């Protein structure tokens, strides 16, 4: 049973900072690009998603690298720990060793861009439709955000999934894979086109509910904080 939990530690450690960095950067970048470009346009969402994806990938790549190495450890009796993997990588490759596969992560930003452009478009339609009925938010609104998140993530994952395969292969120990395009080419040559979509079903099962909950939670937190700020700010002004 322990084999199913390999890499769980780094995954738990990485999720919180990765999401925090991503959404914080996305929010700040969106404000910045809204001041330079047509507000809330697709190009603003693309630029914001690119900034967020770049920041999150760069800062958290070492965590996901260690996680992947642990998951790829086939020796069930080795009992290798995350710290042992960290020391081994540092001794062999130095700091740069933790960034192997970072090119594939940057290529994966395309998935983020597709996801957010589609999500923001669906969200805009939902908000516009609801505004015609009422200004009040309800649980139904956040349920709709979950559906929007799930749909946009499904489309984005299906389109950009090959980068996941390339990234995992590049992180293998003693890998024969040396670069992003070289990896995809070699996988196609040896395994056919199906090879670059290997594991897609598992990825969708993991990501869709995760993204649906995450996007709905994000919208709920933003709404609550906005309402609280408006109440405190305008309340004080009223006095």
TrEMBL record:
It is found in: Mitochondrion inner membrane. Coiled coil: none annotated. Solcar repeats lie at residues 40-125, 140-224. It is a multi-pass membrane protein. GO terms for biological process: pyrimidine nucleotide import into mitochondrion. The keyword Transmembrane applies. SUPFAM superfamilies: Mitochondrial carrier. InterPro entries: MCP, MCP_dom_sf, MCP_transmembrane, SLC25A33/36-like. GO terms for cellular component: mitochondrial inner membrane. Keywords: Membrane, Mitochondrion, Mitochondrion inner membrane, Repeat, Transmembrane, Transmembrane helix, Transport. The keyword Nucleus does not apply. One of its GO terms (molecular function) is pyrimidine nucleotide transmembrane transporter activity. Its main location: mitochondrion. Belongs to the mitochondrial carrier (TC 2.A.29) family. This is Uncharacterized protein. It comes from Acanthoscelides obtectus.
């Amino acid at each position: 049973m322990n084999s199913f939990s390999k890499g769980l530690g780094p995954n738990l450690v990485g999720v919180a900072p990765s999401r925090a960095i991503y959404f914080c950067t996305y929010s700040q970048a969106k404000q910045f690009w809204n001041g330079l470009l047509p507000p809330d346009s697709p190009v603003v969402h693309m630029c914001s998603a690119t900034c967020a994806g770049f920041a999150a990938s760069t800062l958290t790549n070492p965590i996901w690298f260690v996680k992947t190495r642990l998951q790829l450890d086939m020796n069930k009796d080795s009992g290798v720990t995350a710290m042992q993997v960290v020391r081994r990588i540092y001794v062999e490759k130095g700091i740069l060793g933790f960034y192997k596969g970072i090119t594939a992560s940057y290529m994966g930003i395309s998935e983020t861009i597709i996801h957010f452009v589609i999500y923001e478009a669906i969200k805009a339609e939902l908000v516009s439709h609801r505004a015609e009925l009422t200004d009040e938010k309800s649980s139904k609104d956040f349920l709709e955000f979950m559906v929007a998140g799930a749909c946009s993530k499904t489309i984005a994952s299906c389109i950009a999934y090959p980068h996941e395969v390339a990234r995992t292969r590049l992180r293998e120990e003693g890998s024969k894979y040396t670069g992003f395009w070289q990896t995809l080419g070699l996988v196609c040559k040896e395994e056919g086109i199906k090879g670059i979509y290997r594991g897609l079903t598992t990825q969708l099962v993991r990501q869709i509910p995760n993204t649906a909950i995450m996007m709905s939670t994000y919208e709920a937190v933003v709404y609550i904080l906005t309402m609280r700020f408006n109440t405190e700010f305008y309340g004080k002004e009223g006095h």
